[in-house]
Amino acid sequence: MARPRPWIEAFAPATVSNLGPGFDCLGLALRGPGDRVRARLSERSGVKIVSVEGDGGKLPREAERNTAGVAVAALLRRYAPEAGIELELHKGLPLGSGLGSSGASACAALVAADAALGLGLAPTQMVDLAREGELVACGAAHPDNVAPALLGGIVLVTCVEPLRVINLPVPKDLWIAVYTPGCQVNTADARRVLPGLVPLPATVQQAARLGLLVHALHEGDLALLGEAIVDDIVEPVRAQLIPGFLDAKAAAQEAGALACSISGSGPTTFALAASASRAEALLLILEECFSLIGVPGKGHVDQVGPGARVLSTPLH
Ligand code: HSE
């Protein structure tokens, strides 16, 4: 009997995408939470999901319906058509939270599978593969979670065909209060409510703010960054899906948040600050507001962090 191949474990971080004016093209990787995936070569070609933990039994186990399975199948199709990969998923991120949970599983799976196969792909080469996972998860292959989850830092996707991604400078004093209220928002639903067409003046304003945001990051100017993180197109529509969001945002702004908005499609809400202690204070405010409205959840203070990486390499 053939000896079992060693498992290789990889981690991919949670992400905060959109960041106000950057709908579907801007996101950042958090330093703290994320998903872990183990991969190993198998005798049978194709992808098999052996186990999933931490999802409360909610995620599909069939590889072709699971973001990690779909992403690794795309990797095999393109780079190793004869090979077989088994996956074990350990969800660290809540589902339907707006923290890029589906993307994190796909990215960790790709990094683990890439190492198991010895392909040595660059993170940018994996973005397209991970986007295939997003397509099955929510019906849109948006890149703004998987690009920062793979590359780390703050990432702007300027084009998807062909893919072009740019890592923007990360101000070192940027702190993020991240609070996930106790309700779920399905990304597909949160995309269905968006307007198909946007009036020209609002589009111009949004473009100007995204330009300002990039400028602020290059200048390391956190006040300017806060000024740029305003979204009059997507946020007002999605705010209706998150009980208590508008009150929580108003309270965070009153308490001096540089900015406060929805992370991805929500319901996670983030507030920016220029110090850890300010971010801790904002976290308490978000917690109080969401608890008051009856949707208490979980939060933490974080910073921008690195992208997906291998955690363990097997001994030979
Ligand atoms: N840009 C995507 C959206 C992110 O807002 O729908 C989903 O987490």
Helix/strand-derived category reads alpha+beta
Number of strands: 11
The H/E string reads EEEHEHHHEEEHHHHHEEHEE
* CATH architecture verdict of the largest domain: 2-Layer Sandwich
User: Share of helix among residues?
Assistant: 25-40%
Would you give the CATH topology of the largest domain? Ribosomal Protein S5, domain 2
Total helices: the number is 10
The low-confidence runs, each spanning 5 or more residues with pLDDT under 50, are none
User: Strand content of the residues, in percent?
Assistant: 25-35%
Number of domains: 2
Shape: globular
Measured on Cα atoms, how large is the radius of gyration?
19 Å
Largest sheet: 7 strands, mixed
Terminal residue distance: 19 Å
Question: Which kinds of small molecule does this entry bind, naming each only once?
Answer: L-homoserine
Secondary structure layout:
Blueprint: E1 8-17, E2 26-42, E3 46-53, H1 67-79, E4 84-90, H2 101-117, H3 123-138, H4 146-151, E5 154-160, E6 163-168, E7 175-180, H5 187-192, H6 200-219, H7 222-228, H8 235-239, H9 245-254, E8 259-262, E9 269-273, H10 276-292, E10 298-302, E11 309-312
Parallel strand pairs: 3-4
Antiparallel strand pairs: 1-2, 1-11, 2-4, 2-5, 5-6, 7-9, 7-10, 8-9
Bound molecules: L-homoserine (HSE).
L-homoserine (HSE) binds next to helix 5.
